[in-house]
Amino acid sequence: MIRPAMARPFSLRCSVRGDGCFTRLVATVLALAAWLVTPQPVDAAHEIAPAEVLAKVFPGAERAGAFVGEPPAAVVFAEGAPAGYLLSTADVIGSVGFSGKPLDVLVGLRNDGSIAGAVLLKHDEPILIIGIPHERLRAFVAGFAGLDIRQPVVVTESPAPAAGVPDAISGATVSSLVIRDAIVRAARVVATSRGMFGDGRGGARLDRESFAPAGWEELLADGSIARLRLTRGAVARALDEDADAAPESLFIDLFVALATPPRIGQNLLGRREYTRLSAAMGADDTAILVAANGLYSFKGTAYVRSGVFDRVQLVQGDKTIRLDHSRYRNIEALAAPDAPELRETGIFVITADSGFDPLAPWRLELLVERETAQGSAVQTTFALEYDLPPRYHRLEGATAVAEPMPDEPLWVGMWQRRVGAIIGMAVMLTVLTAILVFEDVIAQRQHLYQWTRWVFLAVTVVWLGWIAGAQLSVVNVLTFGHSLLTGFRWEFFLLDPLIFILWSYVAVAMLFWARGVFCGWLCPFGALQELLAEAARRLGIPRVQVPFALHERLWPIKYAIFLGLFAVSLSSTNLAVLGAEVEPFKTAIALKFVRHWPFVAYALALLTAGLFIERFFCRYLCPLGAALAIPARLHMFDWLKRRHQCGRECHICAIHCPVQAIHPNGAINPNECIHCLKCQRLYFDAFTCPPLIVRRKRRQERAEARSTGA
Prior knowledge:
single chain; 3 domains; five-stranded antiparallel sheet; 29 helices; 15% strand
């Protein structure tokens, strides 16, 4: 593909002086490389599937037609008769991945509502941070063969998942969830549009596939959203109270909408949240959005104890449907740009077995109860009528659908399955907090400090890194940045409990101790470097002291690497993940050196360099350390003690600092300090610190003088 010429030439000017020149040069080169290799947007429409792809997506198929219709799908033929459809998730629902970039899966759908097969065509997910090969991701997608799309689906990490539901990819659960949602929702949209299943009436059915952009005000005006506004006076009159004593201020402004049609739900929730909601529901379940402003809460508090909302209920004909908390999803904010700020918003999922008909009129009843002065309770009910506009009715035949099975939010299950590891993490972080809070007490006792540090670092390497797999990476930082730009959802980050807890702890600890809490105590690869360096020292391997003038010109390299990776990630997360291989964490920690030899050789080379220059990688190459160091100066306290002789009369701490974070003038650079407490151990050592040596000798001389005089 021929790329257009750049709009205008550019130049990069560097002076001989200053460390910023190299940083700007590396960042510019990496950003230019990203621009050169990033593919141009391509049309997502698909032609007739090649024979080799068709064999994977629809085993036993003879041929497939062209992708036609709305939404587009191709009819698949087997034994001379139509056997199902081929569909592209990108064409059908415009699927996007966790990275915010396009995600495309080609899916085979049988006439009985089961998945025949699936092939990943395109993705830009940053899932390779722990060494997950592309083959494993493709195998995960192919594992959806046999899935019944009429039932709610949960991706698990259990050893015995349900039929057609593959295990989530360990370490890439977020991407697993996104891919699952795309496959299930797109297949249901095509199945519904082709009349494969519906409400069983053979006539009109609910439009679950058509989408058109619409704002809050437009949806409110055309009846897609219904509204009930009550004042305090109106409520008082309904309760036979003194209406004159109640001001005409707002009591509640209640909104309700059937969120199942994409024109309503996707515009209000956003594409990603709507896709997650659709996949979590059964094929014939219904989603109802309820939102409100004002003094009165439609949720109340009784549901916390009973599990049932006692202030609202659905009524349709002679049916009364109580709203269950287990099928409630809280919504923090609506995605529609003109939507008002609402006090509370939520989605209630009404299952197909409730008998609820989304096409027929229904009402949401709001119960208001007050206690009288005599202690008795009076109550009244207000009804918010809802009649789905005709535009959401589709006149097509349909067959009945199987009853759906309930599911639960995926992150809840992930936390439940890792309770033991979560407890271990909590214990470890509690111990570390105690070490940091009582660092002076520990530093004054040389043997206690040394054994405390060695044991903690060993636990960090063996348990936190090799067993629990909780090694943070710069890709986590890049992914977090992307989520802020493309639609941040807490649920995605909650899916990996150990990583979430660790990042939360590091974020809070940075306010007190800067970046050193993670780099010095909780980084498995950093701990491995330090333990190996200590072993090398005991074996007599000489340690190289890098001249400080050279050292301060080398440590900006890691900042250049991080900024370059961040710039690249804005256009290509795949290229950024590839560049993040500068981190040996994947090889040394996640895969325990079981990897192709170039990666193992690179990791071993860094560890070998660390035998001579302690924490060589941390000093000069680690982009994660650079990312944490940038806000390091925002910490609130300076816990590390210094004397006025430091840097003037004495340089012992600077010589022994494992990362040379102490300047020749004695100042500690918080951007580089890993808070290992070695300088504090020396600070309290009366046989090493010169001011303490002088003080100790004076005490001895005075003691000898008193004893002689005696």
